[in-house]
C-alpha cells in the first residue's frame, strides 16, 4: 500500500490495482467549510488530470482531478449526505472515489508524502 | 451577545417580522375583486385547478406594515454611504421615479399600433442618441436587460460578424484575470473558450502577455476600463491596436464607465462594443438586485448585427423594427429578450441625463474620481493601497494592514456596519489578496467622506493594537440579525416556506 | 448641479489633500489623444421643471392604454395594480439597495425574496423557485440550456404554442451553444401533436399553457412521453393570474416552469422591465440559474435569510457557471410578491374567475359580429378571433385605433412570413375591461369588417 499526492492537492492510496482518491488536509483547509460534494458514478472512465469530482464551500467551487487514468469502481455516497466529513477526516473516511488504474506507470509522476509536504511548505 | 431585554423580542424601531405565511388568516383579503358575471359554460377544457394553492390571506393594513417593517431591515443609498466597489451606488433622483410613472409613458403596451406610441419610441431614440454621443460610437443595441446581458449581446454581434466573414474559427476570447465573473460566463454562452491574461504588478493588463496570446483564432479581448483595480489601462491604445491587427475585436466591459463619462469617448480608445449599465452610470435604482439595463454601443463594423428590435427614423416618424425582413438590409443576430427592452429603466436614465446635461455628467465623473483619490490619499497611510495612484473612481486596498491582527477583511467590513456604513466590496478583484474596493461616487460630500475616513482609521488602529479579534468577529452587533450561518444555509438548503417547517 | 454636493472650496481642499493641482491631473493615465478637455457637444443640464416638460411632451404623443377601450395581451396583460404596491415600492430602503450580499443589512430584501420564491413554487406547483430572471423570454431560454445540462442532450423542441418572442430569444440564446432547436409551426387551433417527436436526443420540450393563441391543454400525456424518453417538460406561462384557475404545470408533470410575472405588480411599462419566474424540482436545484435566497440562523440562533448555493453563479464559477446572469429583477419581484400578498388565495382565485368570465362574455358578445369566430375551444383571458378569409387583422387593428380603440393585436405582427395567419386577431380582457369597452369593440368591429 502506498500513498501519492498531486500538485492540485489530491491524494491517492493504491492497493493492488485500485486507488482510493481524496483531497488533502491542506486543500480542505483552504476551501473552508465544505457544503457540497459530487462524486463520479461507478463505471465512468477517467483520464489523468481530468475532472472527476466537485467540491464546494460557501464561496468556492473546485474540481477534483483524477491523479491517474482508469475506471471508477465506486464513488463515496456518504459524502453527498455529509459534506462536512471532508473537513473532519479528509485523508480518511472522506475519500471521494476508488479507481481501477489503467496505467500504473502514471503513479511515478506523483509526489510521495515528503515531497508533497515540502511542496505545501513552499506555497506559504 | 446582543441580549434582548424586551418581552416582545422587538427593539424599538427594529420589529421582528414573521413570514407572510405566518400572518395569514383564510377569508381576509387585501384587494376587493368584483364578482364575476355568471358563465353558462367555462372554456377551461376541464383543466380547472383542483387543489388550493396555499397562499395566505392578509388585509391591506397588514400588508403595508409587513413590507414597511421589512424595508427597515435594509440599508440603501438613501440610508447612508454605500462605497460598494464596482457597483456605482449613487443617488437615485426622485424626479426619475416621478417621470417613470407618467401614465402617458408607462401605461403603454409594446404591441399597440406604432402610431399610438411615437412618444415612447422618442424616449428610446433620445436615450440612444445620448449614449452614442457620449461614447462616440455609431450604434447602440438598446434591448439588453443588464450588464451581463449586454456583454453577451456584444459578443454575439462579434460572433455573427466573424461567421458572416468566413472567420468562424475565431473561438478564443482573452480575458484578464481581474475581470468580473460575468465576462468568462458570457463568453462561454457564445461558444467561446476563455484564455486568461495575467496582470502586471502595476495592476494592469500585461500587454506583452496579451500580445503573445493574440492569434488567428482569437475572436476578441474583453477588457474592463477603468479596470477592476480602479485604474485606467494606460496602454489601452496599444492593446486596441494589437487586437485589431490580429483581426480580433475589443469588447470593453463598461461597468466602470462612471469614471470617464464626458471626459473620454470610448470610441477614441478603439472600442468595438461596450455595454453601459444604466443602473450604475445613469443612476437608475439598483432595487435590491435589478431591474437594470445594459444597452450596448457598437462600432460601424458590428452595427449591422445588432439584435432586434431597434428604432429607425422613417419619413417624419419613428419606427420600431421587429423583424429582419423590415430591417433595411441589416443582419440582426436575433432577439435577446421579450418586447422592446427595459423601457421603465430608459425613462429614468433619460430623466437623469437630461437633468445633468453634458456639463453635469462631466462634472459627475470628475467628482467621482476626485472622491476616490481623496479616500486613497486620506486612507493611504493607514490601510495598504494595492497600487500607486492616481486611481479612477474607486480605491483598492489589500489586507496587509491587518496582518497578524487576527482580523480578516470580512471582520473589518462587518465592523463598519455597526458604525453605520455599508461595507466596501470585499475579496474582489481576485488578483489582490483580501481586497477592499471602495467606490465613493460623486454623490458623497466631503463631510461624509471625512466621517468615514475617521471611522476606518479608528477601526484599523483598533485592529493593529491587537487583542480585538474576537470583538471584530462578533460584529455586527446592532443589526436586525447578526452574522448568518451561510454554511448551514448551503449544506441543508431551505429555499421556501412549507407548512410547519420554517420555525 | 442639484445632485452634486461639492462646492468649489470642497474641491480645492480635497485636491490639496491629494496633492494634485487639478482634477485633470487625476486623469493623467488616460492617453492624451483620448482626453476631452470640454464637455461633449450635447445639451446642458436642466432644472426639474424643464425635464418634466420635455418628458411630458413625449408622453403626450402616446395613446395610453387606460384612456381607451383596450384589448391587447399577447404575453403582457393590463391588470389593476393596487395603490399600496407602488407606494411601498418607492421606499428608499427597497429602491436604493444593492443585491443583498451583506445579509445583516439586507434582511428586508432577503425575506421578501424568500417569500417570493415560496409563492412562485406554490403557484406553479413546483418544489423550488429562484429569485427571478430578466423576463419570461430569457427565463425560457435559460430553461432550455438548463435542460440540456441536466439531460446531457443536445436537442430542444419548441412548440408552436410558445410566444414568438420567447421562441426567438431561446433560438438566439442557443445559437452558438452547440444545442439544436426544433421549432414547430404556429398553432392557432391548439391542434399540435407533440407525441412521437420526443426521442433519445431530446433534452426538453417547451410548451406554453395557455398557448400564445389562448388554448389550454392537458399536458399530462406529453409529460409522460417526455419522461419515458428521459427528456424534461418545460412549461411556459404568460399570465400568472391564470394560476388562480388552471391546474398548475407542476400537477401536470412539468420539470421546469417559466413565466412572465409582469401581470402582478408592474403594469405594462411598454414591455419592460419584466420579471422572469423560474421554478423546478428539488433534484435539479444545483443546475438552476439565478440567485436563491435561503433560510438559516444568525449568531444568536435567530431565523434569518442569506443568498445561498452561490457556487452555481458567475462570480464564483466564471465560465463554468449555470448562467451569466448577475443583476436580475429584484424590485419587480417585490412588486409581484406584494401584489400577490394583497390578493392572497381568496383574491387571486376571484381575480382569475373574473378574468375568465369576462373573456367568455366578450366571446358571447362577438357572436353579434358577422363572419368572425373564436378559434379553438379553450382559453383563459385571451383568444384568437378569426376575422374571415379575406380579412387582414393588422388593417382592422389600425382602423380600430382610428376609432379610439386598442383592439387587440394582429397575429401577423409576429408572423409576417405566415400569410394564413393574416385574418387572426388576438383579443385579451382583464378585470380592467368594462362592459362598455366590450360594446364599443363589438360596434367598431361590426363597422370596420
From TrEMBL, chain A:
Annotated PROSITE patterns: BIOTINYL_LIPOYL, LIPOYL
Keyword Electron transport appears in the UniProt entry: no
Cellular component aspect of the GO annotation: cytosol; glycine cleavage complex
Database matches in SUPFAM superfamilies: Single hybrid motif (SSF51230)
Pfam families: GCV_H (PF01597)
Cofactor(s) in the UniProt record: (R)-lipoate
Keywords, ordered alphabetically: Lipoyl
UniProt similarity note: Belongs to the GcvH family.
PANTHER family: GLYCINE CLEAVAGE SYSTEM H PROTEIN, GLYCINE CLEAVAGE SYSTEM H PROTEIN-RELATED
Oligomeric and partner information: The glycine cleavage system is composed of four proteins: P, T, L and H.
Function: The glycine cleavage system catalyzes the degradation of glycine. The H protein shuttles the methylamine group of glycine from the P protein to the T protein.
Name of the protein in its database record: Glycine cleavage system H protein
Organism for this UniProt entry: Magnetospirillum aberrantis SpK
Automatic annotation (TrEMBL), chain B:
The organism's taxonomic lineage, starting at the top: Bacteria, Pseudomonadati, Pseudomonadota, Alphaproteobacteria, Rhodospirillales
Cited Pfam families: Aminotran_5, GcvP2_C
GO MF annotations, alphabetized: glycine binding; glycine dehydrogenase (decarboxylating) activity; pyridoxal phosphate binding
E.C. number(s) listed in UniProt: 1.4.4.2
The keyword Oxidoreductase is annotated on this UniProt entry: yes
Keywords: Oxidoreductase, Pyridoxal phosphate
GO BP term, pick one: glycine decarboxylation via glycine cleavage system
Entry GO terms, CC: cytosol; glycine cleavage complex
Protein name, per record: glycine dehydrogenase (aminomethyl-transferring)
Known role: The glycine cleavage system catalyzes the degradation of glycine. The P protein binds the alpha-amino group of glycine through its pyridoxal phosphate cofactor; CO(2) is released and the remaining methylamine moiety is then transferred to the lipoamide cofactor of the H protein.
UniProt domain Aminotransferase class V: residue ranges: 170-287
Region (Disordered): 477-503
Catalysed reactions, semicolon-separated: N(6)-[(R)-lipoyl]-L-lysyl-[glycine-cleavage complex H protein] + glycine + H(+) = N(6)-[(R)-S(8)-aminomethyldihydrolipoyl]-L-lysyl-[glycine-cleavage complex H protein] + CO2
Organism of origin: Magnetospirillum aberrantis SpK
Domain Glycine dehydrogenase C-terminal positions: 364-462
UniProt xrefs under InterPro entries: Aminotrans_V_dom, GDC-P_C, GDC_P, PyrdxlP-dep_Trfase, PyrdxlP-dep_Trfase_major, PyrdxlP-dep_Trfase_small
Keyword Coiled coil belongs to the record: no
From TrEMBL, chain C:
Coiled coil: none
Keyword Oxidoreductase carried by entry: yes
Uppermost EC category: oxidoreductase
MF annotations from Gene Ontology: glycine dehydrogenase (decarboxylating) activity
GO biological process, one term: nucleoside metabolic process
Glycine cleavage system P-protein N-terminal domain sequence ranges: 1-444
Keyword terms of this UniProt record: Oxidoreductase
Catalysis performed (reactions): N(6)-[(R)-lipoyl]-L-lysyl-[glycine-cleavage complex H protein] + glycine + H(+) = N(6)-[(R)-S(8)-aminomethyldihydrolipoyl]-L-lysyl-[glycine-cleavage complex H protein] + CO2
InterPro entries (UniProt xref): GcvPA, GDC-P_N, PyrdxlP-dep_Trfase, PyrdxlP-dep_Trfase_major, PyrdxlP-dep_Trfase_small
Top-rank taxon: Bacteria
EC numbers on record: 1.4.4.2
Biological role: The glycine cleavage system catalyzes the degradation of glycine. The P protein binds the alpha-amino group of glycine through its pyridoxal phosphate cofactor; CO(2) is released and the remaining methylamine moiety is then transferred to the lipoamide cofactor of the H protein.
Quaternary structure (record): The glycine cleavage system is composed of four proteins: P, T, L and H. In this organism, the P 'protein' is a heterodimer of two subunits.
Family the UniProt entry places it in: Belongs to the GcvP family. N-terminal subunit subfamily.
Protein name: Probable glycine dehydrogenase (decarboxylating) subunit 1
Amino acid at each position: 500500500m502506498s500513498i501519492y499526492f498531486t500538485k492540485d492537492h489530491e491524494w491517492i492510496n493504491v492497493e493492488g490495482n485500485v486507488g482510493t482518491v481524496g483531497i488533502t488536509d491542506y486543500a480542505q483547509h483552504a476551501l473552508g467549510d465544505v457544503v457540497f460534494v459530487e462524486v463520479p458514478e461507478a463505471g465512468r472512465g477517467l483520464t489523468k488530470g481530468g475532472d472527476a469530482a466537485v467540491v464546494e464551500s460557501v464561496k468556492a467551487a473546485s474540481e477534483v482531478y483524477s491523479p491517474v487514468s482508469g475506471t471508477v469502481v465506486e464513488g463515496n455516497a456518504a459524502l453527498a449526505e455529509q459534506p462536512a466529513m471532508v473537513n473532519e477526516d479528509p485523508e480518511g473516511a472522506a475519500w471521494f472515489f476508488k479507481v481501477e488504474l489503467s496505467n500504473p506507470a502514471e503513479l511515478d509522476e506523483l509526489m510521495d508524502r515528503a515531497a508533497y509536504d515540502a511542496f505545501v511548505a513552499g506555497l506559504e | 451577545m446582543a441580549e434582548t431585554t424586551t418581552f416582545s423580542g422587538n427593539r424599538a424601531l427594529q420589529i421582528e417580522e414573521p413570514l407572510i405565511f405566518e400572518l395569514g388568516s383564510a377569508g381576509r383579503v387585501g384587494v376587493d375583486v368584483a364578482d364575476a358575471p355568471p358563465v353558462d359554460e367555462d372554456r377551461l377544457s376541464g383543466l380547472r385547478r383542483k387543489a388550493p394553492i396555499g397562499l395566505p390571506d392578509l388585509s391591506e393594513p397588514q400588508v403595508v406594515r409587513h413590507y414597511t417593517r421589512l424595508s427597515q431591515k435594509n440599508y440603501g443609498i438613501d440610508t447612508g454611504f454605500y462605497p460598494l466597489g464596482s457597483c456605482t451606488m449613487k443617488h437615485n433622483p426622485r424626479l426619475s421615479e416621478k417621470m417613470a410613472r407618467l401614465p402617458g409613458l408607462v401605461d403603454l403596451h409594446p404591441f399597440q399600433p406604432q402610431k399610438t406610441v411615437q412618444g415612447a419610441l422618442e424616449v428610446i431614440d433620445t436615450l440612444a442618441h445620448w449614449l452614442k454621443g457620449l461614447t462616440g460610437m455609431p450604434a447602440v443595441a438598446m434591448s439588453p436587460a443588464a450588464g451581463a446581458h449586454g456583454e453577451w449581446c456584444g459578443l454575439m454581434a462579434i460572433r455573427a460578424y466573424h461567421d458572416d466573414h468566413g472567420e468562424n474559427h475565431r473561438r478564443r476570447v482573452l480575458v484578464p484575470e481581474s475581470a468580473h465573473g460575468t465576462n468568462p460566463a458570457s463568453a462561454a454562452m457564445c461558444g467561446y473558450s476563455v484564455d486568461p491574461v495575467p496582470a502586471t504588478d502595476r495592476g494592469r493588463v500585461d500587454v506583452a502577455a496579451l500580445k503573445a496570446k493574440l492569434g488567428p483564432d482569437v475572436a476578441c479581448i474583453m477588457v474592463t476600463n477603468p479596470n477592476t483595480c480602479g485604474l485606467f489601462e494606460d496602454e489601452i491604445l496599444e492593446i486596441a491596436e494589437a487586437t485589431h491587427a490580429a483581426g480580433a475585436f475589443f469588447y470593453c466591459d463598461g461597468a466602470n464607465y462612471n469614471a470617464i463619462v464626458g471626459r473620454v469617448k470610448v470610441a477614441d480608445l478603439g472600442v468595438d462594443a461596450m455595454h453601459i449599465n444604466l443602473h450604475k452610470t445613469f443612476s437608475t435604482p439598483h432595487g435590491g438586485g435589478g431591474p437594470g439595463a445594459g444597452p450596448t454601443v457598437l462600432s460601424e463594423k458590428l452595427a449591422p448585427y445588432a439584435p432586434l428590435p431597434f428604432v429607425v427614423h422613417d419619413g417624419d416618424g419613428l419606427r420600431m423594427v421587429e423583424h429582419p425582413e423590415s430591417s433595411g438590409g441589416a443582419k440582426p443576430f436575433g432577439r435577446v429578450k421579450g418586447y422592446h427592452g427595459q423601457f421603465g429603466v430608459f425613462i429614468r436614465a433619460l430623466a437623469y441625463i437630461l437633468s445633468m446635461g453634458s456639463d453635469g455628467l462631466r462634472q459627475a465623473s470628475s467628482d467621482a474620481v476626485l472622491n476616490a483619490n481623496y479616500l486613497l490619499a486620506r486612507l493611504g497611510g493607514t490601510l495598504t493601497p494595492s497600487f500607486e495612484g492616481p486611481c479612477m473612481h474607486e480605491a483598492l486596498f489589500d489586507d496587509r494592514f491587518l496582518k497578524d491582527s487576527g482580523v480578516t477583511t470580512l471582520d473589518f467590513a462587518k465592523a463598519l456596519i455597526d458604525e453605520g456604513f455599508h461595507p466596501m466590496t470585499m475579496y474582489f478583484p481576485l488578483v489582490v489578496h483580501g481586497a477592499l474596493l471602495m467606490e465613493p461616487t460623486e454623490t458623497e460630500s466631503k463631510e461624509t467622506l471625512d466621517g468615514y475616513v475617521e471611522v476606518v482609521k479608528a477601526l484599523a488602529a483598533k485592529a493593529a493594537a491587537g487583542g480585538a479579534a474576537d470583538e471584530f468577529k462578533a460584529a455586527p452587533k446592532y443589526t436586525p440579525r447578526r452574522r448568518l450561518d451561510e454554511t448551514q444555509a448551503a449544506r441543508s438548503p431551505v429555499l421556501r416556506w412549507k407548512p410547519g417547517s420554517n420555525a | 448641479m442639484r445632485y452634486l454636493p461639492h462646492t468649489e472650496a470642497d474641491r480645492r481642499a480635497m485636491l490639496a489633500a491629494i496633492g494634485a493641482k487639478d482634477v485633470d491631473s487625476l486623469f493623467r493615465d488616460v492617453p492624451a489623444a483620448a482626453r476631452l478637455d470640454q464637455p461633449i457637444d450635447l445639451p446642458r443640464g436642466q432644472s426639474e421643471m424643464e425635464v418634466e416638460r420635455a418628458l411630458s411632451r413625449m408622453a403626450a404623443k402616446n395613446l395610453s392604454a387606460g384612456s381607451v377601450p383596450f384589448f391587447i395581451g399577447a404575453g403582457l396583460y393590463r391588470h389593476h395594480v393596487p395603490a399600496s404596491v407602488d407606494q411601498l415600492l418607492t421606499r428608499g430602503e427597497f429602491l436604493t439597495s444593492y443585491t443583498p450580499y451583506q445579509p445583516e443589512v439586507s434582511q428586508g430584501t432577503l425575506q421578501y425574496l424568500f417569500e417570493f420564491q415560496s409563492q412562485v413554487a406554490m403557484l406553479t406547483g413546483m418544489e423550488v423557485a429562484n429569485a427571478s430572471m430578466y423576463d419570461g423570454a430569457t427565463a425560457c431560454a435559460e430553461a432550455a440550456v438548463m435542460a440540456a445540462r441536466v439531460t446531457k442532450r443536445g436537442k430542444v423542441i419548441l412548440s408552436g404554442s410558445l410566444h414568438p418572442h420567447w421562441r426567438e430569444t431561446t433560438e438566439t440564446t442557443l445559437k452558438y451553444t452547440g444545442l439544436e432547436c426544433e421549432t414547430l409551426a404556429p398553432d392557432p387551433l391548439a391542434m399540435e401533436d407533440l407525441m412521437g417527436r420526443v426521442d433519445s436526443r431530446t433534452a426538453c420540450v417547451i410548451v406554453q399553457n395557455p398557448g400564445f393563441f389562448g388554448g389550454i391543454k392537458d399536458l399530462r400525456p406529453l409529460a409522460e412521453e417526455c419522461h419515458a424518453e428521459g427528456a424534461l417538460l418545460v412549461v411556459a406561462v404568460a399570465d400568472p393570474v391564470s394560476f388562480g384557475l388552471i391546474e398548475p404545470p407542476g400537477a401536470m408533470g412539468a420539470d421546469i416552469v417559466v413565466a412572465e410575472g409582469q401581470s402582478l405588480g408592474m403594469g405594462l411599462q411598454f414591455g419592460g422591465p419584466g420579471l422572469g419566474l423560474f421554478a423546478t424540482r428539488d433534484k435539479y436545484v444545483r443546475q438552476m440559474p439565478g440567485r436563491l435566497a435561503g433560510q438559516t440562523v444568525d449568531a444568536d440562533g435567530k431565523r434569518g435569510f442569506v443568498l445561498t448555493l452561490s457556487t452555481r453563479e458567475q462570480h464564483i464559477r466564471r465560465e463554468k457557471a449555470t448562467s451569466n446572469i448577475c443583476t436580475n429583477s429584484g424590485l419587480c419581484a417585490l412588486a409581484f410578491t406584494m401584489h400577490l400578498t394583497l390578493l392572497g388565495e381568496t383574491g387571486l382565485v376571484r381575480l382569475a374567475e373574473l378574468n375568465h368570465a369576462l373573456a367568455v362574455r366578450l366571446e358571447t358578445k362577438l357572436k353579434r359580429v358577422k363572419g368572425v369566430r373564436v378559434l379553438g375551444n379553450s382559453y383563459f383571458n385571451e383568444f384568437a378571433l378569426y376575422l374571415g378569409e379575406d380579412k387582414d387583422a393588422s388593417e382592422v387593428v389600425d382602423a380600430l385605433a382610428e376609432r379610439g380603440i386598442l383592439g387587440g393585436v394582429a397575429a401577423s405582427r409576429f408572423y409576417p412570413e405566415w400569410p394564413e395567419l393574416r385574418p387572426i386577431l388576438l383579443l385579451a380582457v382583464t378585470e380592467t375591461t368594462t362592459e362598455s369597452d366590450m360594446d364599443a369593440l363589438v360596434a367598431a368591429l361590426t363597422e370596420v369588417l
